[in-house]
Write a structure and sequence with these properties.
alpha/beta; 7 helices; 7 strands; 32% helix; DNA-binding; DNA-binding protein; DNA binding; NTF2-like_dom_sf
């Protein structure tokens, strides 16, 4: 494993917060994603690109046509979902909910969608959910999805959302789809959320 070159304290700290401490780990991400991380600027990217080349490595190629293409925050997730349509739907939901993308949310959620946060509340109806989500939208810096699983009518994901102030929200989501069909919409979501104080 090759240590990170000297890229400045803000960039080093930003990457270390994501447990990115080696060039091999940097090579798992594309330039555009890393540039969206607060603290990582063009100068750091230039230094990393040079160091990667010297180690016969390179930034990952940008995946075209993903839900994260148009967002202004970094999305750290496995985008290799082409043979798992429900994983792609979950990924798109996570990006849309972090960015408040109404059109994308409407495309992945069933009209009678139900969102439950056990012990806290339940929201019934896609439109009510979207309205609540947009009313409470936070300025996101990083959406990191640590795992994304789907099987039949069910799926799950967990990860961390970091806002622009550096605060973390840890989430674990359990999804239920309308049916086993590959393009089925999400009908239910149960979320467990821990907000950093």
């Amino acid at each position: 494993m090759t240590k990170l070159p000297s890229i400045g304290k803000p960039a080093t700290n930003a990457l270390q917060l994501l447990d990115i401490t080696t060039l091999e780990q940097v090579a798992e991400y594309d330039e555009k994603t890393l540039l969206k991380i607060h603290g990582v600027g063009p100068k750091a990217i230039g230094i990393l690109k040079e160091a990667l080349a010297e180690s016969s490595l390179a930034f990952k190629q940008t995946t075209k046509g993903t839900a994260s293409s148009g967002v202004d925050f970094a999305v750290l997730c496995d985008f290799d979902c082409d043979n798992a349509p429900k994983k792609r739907i979950i990924r798109d939901y996570l990006v849309a909910s972090a960015s408040g993308d109404r059109a994308l949310l409407e495309s992945v959620l069933e009209e009678s969608f139900v969102w439950t946060v056990p012990g806290e509340f339940q929201i019934k109806g896609r439109d009510e959910f979207i309205a609540e989500l947009i009313a409470n939208l936070q300025a996101v810096n990083i959406l990191e999805v640590q795992s994304l699983i789907s099987h039949g009518k069910e799926g799950s994901a967990h990860g961390t959302v970091t806002n622009k102030k550096g605060k973390h929200v840890y989430f674990s989501d359990i999804f239920t789809f309308q049916s086993n069909k590959p393009d089925a919409k999400i009908s239910k979501l149960t979320s467990f959320v821990v907000i950093e104080e």
